[in-house]
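Morning run. Coffee first, then this:
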Amino acid sequence: MNESARPPVDIDIFTGPGCGYCHRAKAVLDRRGLAYREIDISAAAGRQEMEQRLPSARSIPQIFIAGRHVGGCEDLERLDAGGTLGDITRKD
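And here it is:
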């Protein structure tokens, strides 16, 4: 299947206003041309969704790719630097 014909993988990123790590994580995804759903935890619905999906989370961002929790900003940056981000966001 050609790259442009691949459907996008689901990426959710839980963020909050003024969060530098959130900005950095979104920049990684933007540089890779990856679409994502941003969920703002400053809104009650966003906070509730994060608590349901990851009850132990105490920081943001929290990133899920294809339903799998990959961690926060630095985890995403490590995946990107190691070349693994492309592998897990490729949907065949």
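The first strand starts at residue 11 and ends at 15. Good start to the day.
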